[in-house]
Structure formats: structure tokens, C-alpha cells
Design brief:
Order of helices and strands: EHHEHHEEHEHEEEEHHEHE
Number of domains: 1
Number of strands: 11
CATH topology: Carbamate kinase
Distance between the termini: 21 Å
Strand content: 15-25%
Helix content: 25-40%
Strand order of the largest sheet: 4-3-5-2-1-6-10-11-9
CATH superfamily: Acetylglutamate kinase-like
CATH class: Alpha Beta
Shape: globular
CATH architecture: 3-Layer(aba) Sandwich
Length: 235
């Protein structure tokens, strides 16, 4: 096994699947099955999900929403996605615990490291929703923070693209894929893999980031087994 404990970041936008808004049940179930598959291999899994399929604070601010209230709405969107994933995992018999970084029992357990670690050690998938619980931070930063806290071996960034490229592969047919790139290189080349706060946290705490295509079924297991299907970003 390449990794024994992971922090998996799932994209809210990817949860839309073929829809323009909300949660595509097929995509959600695909994700749940991929997560169950690696959980059965004994991998300890922490998960952070974005909320962009429901509401994104930054785009809300551009439409006149107060940024702090907009970010709070975005954090609640991640809780809705967390509940959906928890339900999908329940349906296929995969033990999991939903934790929220903002107090909202009985929807989810209030997040703290010791309880998250205990659940991970009991082979429960731990879904940590609510972002960092603070405005002005992205779910990438929340993922970096939670990955460091739960002492993950890697931050797996599941996207719809199969890695990091020299340019946007959806716009530039000549874009070349990196198999490996350093955080420094990523910064100097201006590659927008995640925001600077998340990058700095991973860099300072030596948490490698692996960017891969989560939307192709079976890819999560391939990453865990060490297949080079994405891009590794590290020091």
C-alpha cells in the first residue's frame, strides 16, 4: 500500500455530475463505493467535501452578499454534502461518522481531533464538514488543516482532471502533465492547484498532495495501490 491514512478532498462541483446544481445520486454512489473499497483494505480515511454545487461564498460576495454571511452559507453547503455522503455510505454498509466544525448536534458530532482519531482507529470513515468554521478560508485550506491534524500520510485531492498540467488541459491541447512537482515550482509557475494558504500549510507541515481524477470509478483504489495516475506535489 502506498498510503495507510489519507485525507480525501472531494469537489462539491463534481458531486453535480451531469446536473447544473445540487447532488447527482449516481456520482454520490460512485464516490461511496470507491471509499468503501479502500476502507475494506484497512485504509484510514478522513474526508472533506467542498460546497460549490450548492453555494460558494466568494461568488455570493460578487453578487452582493456579505462575504462573512456568504462563507457561512458555503460552510453549511459542505454539511449538506457531508450528510449526503454519510447516507450513501450507510446504504452500502460502510461505517462512518459525520463531524462538523461548527456545533450543530444532532446533525453531526462537533469535530475534535481525539474523537476523529478514535473513529479512524475503529475503521470508521470520518467526514469532517463545515470547512475550518471560519470565513475567508477555502475547503482546500480546511483539507490541509484536517490532514495535518489527523496525521494523514497524504492529502488526496480528487478532481475532474487527472493531475497537474503546464496549462489548463481543457483549454490548451498542448498542455503537458507533471508526474511530480514541488510546492515551490507550483508557486513560481503560478499553477492554481489550490489556494496559497492551503499550499503554505502543506509545505510547512510536509504533507504531500496527490491530485487525481476521482470521477473515474476505481481511480481511488489505484492511487492507494501506488499506480501513477495523477500528480504528486511535495517538498
Amino acid at each position: 500500500m502506498e498510503y495507510k491514512k489519507i485525507l480525501l478532498k472531494l469537489s462539491g462541483e463534481s458531486l453535480m455530475g451531469t446536473q447544473t446544481y445540487g447532488i447527482d445520486s449516481n456520482r454520490l454512489n460512485d464516490y461511496a463505493e470507491q471509499i468503501k473499497e479502500i476502507s475494506h483494505l484497512g485504509i484510514k480515511i478522513g474526508i472533506v467535501i467542498g460546497g460549490g454545487n450548492i453555494f460558494r461564498g466568494l461568488s455570493g460576495a460578487s453578487k452582493g452578499f456579505d462575504r462573512v454571511k456568504g462563507d457561512s452559507m458555503g460552510m453549511l453547503a459542505t454539511v449538506i454534502n457531508g450528510l449526503a455522503l454519510s447516507s450513501a455510505l450507510d446504504n452500502i454498509g460502510c461505517k462512518n461518522k459525520l463531524m462538523t466544525s461548527i456545533r450543530m448536534e444532532p446533525i453531526g458530532k462537533y469535530y475534535n481531533k481525539s474523537e476523529a482519531m478514535e473513529a479512524l482507529n475503529n475503521n470508521e470513515v470520518v467526514i469532517i464538514s463545515g470547512g475550518t468554521s471560519n470565513p475567508y478560508f477555502t475547503t482546500d485550506t480546511a483539507s490541509a488543516l484536517r490532514g495535518i491534524e489527523i496525521e494523514a500520510d497524504v492529502f488526496l485531492k480528487g478532481t475532474r482532471v487527472d493531475g497537474v498540467y503546464t496549462a489548463d488541459p481543457e483549454k490548451d491541447p498542448n498542455a503537458k502533465k507533471y508526474e511530480n512537482i514541488s510546492f515551490d515550482e507550483m508557486y513560481t509557475k503560478g499553477l492554481k492547484i489550490m489556494d496559497l494558504t492551503a499550499t503554505a500549510m502543506c509545505m510547512e507541515n510536509n504533507l504531500p498532495v496527490y491530485v487525481f481524477d476521482m470521477d473515474t470509478k476505481g481511480n481511488l483504489k489505484k492511487v492507494i495501490l501506488g499506480e501513477k495516475i495523477g500528480t504528486l506535489v511535495n517538498n
